[in-house]
Amino acid sequence: MNEPASKAEADRVAEEMRAEREKLSRELQDMRDDIDRRLAEVEREMEDTKLSAEARAEKEARRAELTEKRSTVDKAWNDVQNATSETWKDVKTGVSKTSSDVGDWFKRQAENVDKKTGADADKDGH
Predict the structure, then answer these.
(1) Which in 41, 76, 109, 124 has the greatest CB count within 10 A?
(2) Residue 117, Cβ density class (10 Å: 0-12 exposed, 13-18 middle, ≥19 buried)
(3) Cα 22–Cα 25–Cα 30 angle in degrees, nearest 5
(4) What angle do CA 14, 20, 25 make, to 5 degrees?
């Protein structure tokens, strides 16, 4: 009698893991797409031969930071894809933290732009 309940529980856990894996994969892919868009924008801006040395250095630093974030997101995405039922709990915790950290980084970048331009481009009141 216990066997059907155990199978049902195992099926429920497997479905929950699949749904969580899918959600995290989507979030990470969206972050990767956003980073890629921002990298392409920085690359286009760096094509300007009239950039001052200071502006070029800022853009190179931004490119390096974006590249680092992309690597972080790529590693997290790979972790999600390669997780097993035994490693899922740890992977989920680590990837959730990575996702949160990168999301917070994006918010800080938007605030920095707002401060530099005196605008509220992200419409958050800050």
Answers:
(1) 76
(2) exposed
(3) 125
(4) 125
The helix, strand and coil proportions of the chain, stated in percent and rounded to the nearest 5, come to: 85, 0, 15
Model-level pTM? 0.77
pLDDT of amino acid 104: 87
Q: Using the 8-state DSSP alphabet, how is residue 123 labeled?
A: -
pLDDT digits (tens, 9 = 90+) for 47-63: 999 999 999 999 999 99
CA angle (112 as vertex; 103, 120 as ends), nearest 5: 95
100, pLDDT greater than 80:
yes
